[in-house]
C-alpha cells in the first residue's frame, strides 16, 4: 500500500491564480481608445477637409551650430526643415541627416526630441548611444526646461496664465490633433505676454510659451483652441485655449505669413556625463 505522505499534490489543485501586486498610490490606467464613437452633442468639429499635401523644399543654408562636444551637438533648426527623414525619397534631407554628415563617427539613433517641420529653433542630437539614452530619459522624465517664442493673432487680454487642455490625434483628419476632455491626454502650457504689437498691419501678441507636457502640436493647439475640433467640456481645473492661433499656422489658423511664427528659443538640460546644468538659446528670427 502506497504511503499517502509520498504522493505529490497536483500543482494545479488548490492554488489561486497569482495577482499582480499594485504599486502604492498607482492609478488605474484609462483604456486606450484609438477612435472612440462620440455622440453628436459632445463633438464640435471645426475642420473636416483633409490636409493638403505639400512640396518639400527645405532651406539650403548650412545648419547653425550652437554647441558641440564629444557627446552631443545643439543646432538651430530653420523653419521648413524636417527633424527626421520622411518616408518619401525626396524627404530624406533633415536635421539628423545633415548632422550625420557633419559628424560621420556618430553612433546611435541621435534624435532625442523633435520640432515640427514649420517650427524653428533649438534641437539637441546625441553623438553616441549612451548620450542618446540619457538625454531621451531627461525629456521623458521632464527634467528639461523649454521655452518658445510665438506671435499670436490679436491682443491677448491676460498677461500670463496656464492652459490645461487634454489632446489626442484626430483620427478622421490627419495629421491634426484635437481637444478631447473625455479621452485626451493631459496637456499643459504656461504663457507669458512679452509685447502687444502689430504685424502686417494687424494686432498680434508676442508671447513666451512653456510646454509642461510635450504633445504633438501642443503649442499650436493650445493657442488656437477653442477654434479646434473639440470633444466634451472642461471639468475641474481644465481650461479652454487662448483663442489666438500662431501667426502663419496653416493647420490650426491661417497661412497668412511667410512662415509659422513659432520658435524654440531656449533649452535647458543636464550634461549626460558631468550632470552640469546647461542652457542653450537660439536668436529670435522674428
Walk me through the structure.
It is a single chain. This protein has helices at residues 95-102, 129-140, 218-224; strands spanning 43-44, 64-68, 72-77, 120-126, 145-153, 160-164, 167-169, 177-180, 188-199, 202-211, 230-231, 262-270, 277-281. It has 286 residues and is mainly β. The protein has one domain: Pseudouridine synthase. Strands 2, 3, 4, 5, 6, 9, 10, 12 and 13 form a nine-stranded mixed beta sheet that branches. The longest helix is centred in the middle third of the chain and has 12 residues, at 129-140. It is globular, with a radius of gyration of 24 Å. It starts with 42 loop residues before the first strand and ends in a 5-residue tail after the last strand.
Task: Produce a short descriptive summary.
By secondary structure, this protein is mainly β. The protein has helices at 95-102, 129-140, 218-224; strands at 43-44, 64-68, 72-77, 120-126, 145-153, 160-164, 167-169, 177-180, 188-199, 202-211, 230-231, 262-270, 277-281. It has one domain: 2-Layer Sandwich (Pseudouridine synthase).
List keywords for this structure.
single chain; 286 residues; mainly beta; Pseudouridine synthase; 9-stranded mixed sheet; 4-stranded mixed sheet; 3 helices; globular; disordered N terminus
* Chain-averaged pLDDT: 90
Task: Give the radius of gyration.
Answer: 24 Å
The share of residues in extended strands comes to: 25-35%
CATH architecture: 2-Layer Sandwich
Q: What is the CATH homologous superfamily assignment?
A: Pseudouridine synthase
Strand segment tally: 13
How widely separated are the two ends? 95 Å
Per the CATH scheme, the topology name is: Pseudouridine synthase
Query: Which stretches are low in confidence, meaning pLDDT under 50 for 5 or more residues running?
Result: 1-27
Amino acid at each position: 500500500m502506497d504511503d499517502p505522505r509520498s504522493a505529490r499534490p497536483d500543482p494545479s489543485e488548490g492554488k489561486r491564480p497569482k495577482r499582480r501586486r499594485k504599486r502604492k498610490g498607482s492609478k488605474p490606467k484609462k483604456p486606450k481608445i484609438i477612435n472612440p464613437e462620440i455622440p453628436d452633442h459632445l463633438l464640435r468639429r471645426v475642420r473636416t477637409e483633409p490636409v493638403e499635401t505639400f512640396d518639400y523644399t527645405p532651406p539650403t543654408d548650412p545648419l547653425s551650430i550652437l554647441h558641440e562636444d564629444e557627446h552631443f551637438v545643439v543646432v538651430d533648426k530653420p523653419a521648413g526643415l524636417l527633424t527626421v527623414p520622411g518616408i518619401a525619397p525626396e524627404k530624406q534631407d533633415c536635421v539628423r541627416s545633415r548632422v550625420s554628415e557633419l559628424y560621420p563617427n556618430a553612433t546611435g539613433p541621435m534624435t532625442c526630441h523633435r520640432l515640427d517641420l514649420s517650427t524653428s529653433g533649438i534641437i539637441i542630437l546625441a553623438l553616441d548611444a549612451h548620450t542618446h539614452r540619457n538625454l531621451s530619459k531627461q525629456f521623458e522624465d521632464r527634467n528639461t526646461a523649454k521655452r518658445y517664442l510665438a506671435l499670436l493673432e490679436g491682443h491677448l487680454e491676460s498677461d500670463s496664465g496656464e492652459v490645461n487642455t487634454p489632446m489626442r490625434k484626430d483620427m478622421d483628419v490627419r495629421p491634426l490633433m484635437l481637444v478631447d476632455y473625455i479621452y485626451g491626454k493631459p496637456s499643459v502650457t504656461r504663457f507669458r505676454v512679452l509685447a502687444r504689437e502689430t504685424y502686417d498691419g494687424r494686432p498680434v501678441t508676442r508671447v513666451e510659451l512653456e510646454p509642461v507636457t510635450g504633445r504633438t502640436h501642443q503649442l499650436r493647439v493650445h493657442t488656437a483652441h477653442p477654434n479646434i475640433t473639440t470633444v466634451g467640456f472642461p471639468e475641474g481645473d481644465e481650461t479652454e485655449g487662448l483663442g489666438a492661433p500662431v501667426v502663419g499656422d496653416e493647420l490650426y489658423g491661417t497661412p497668412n505669413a511667410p512662415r509659422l511664427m513659432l520658435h524654440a528659443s531656449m533649452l535647458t538640460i543636464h550634461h549626460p556625463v558631468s550632470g552640469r546644468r546647461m542652457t542653450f538659446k537660439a536668436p529670435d528670427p522674428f
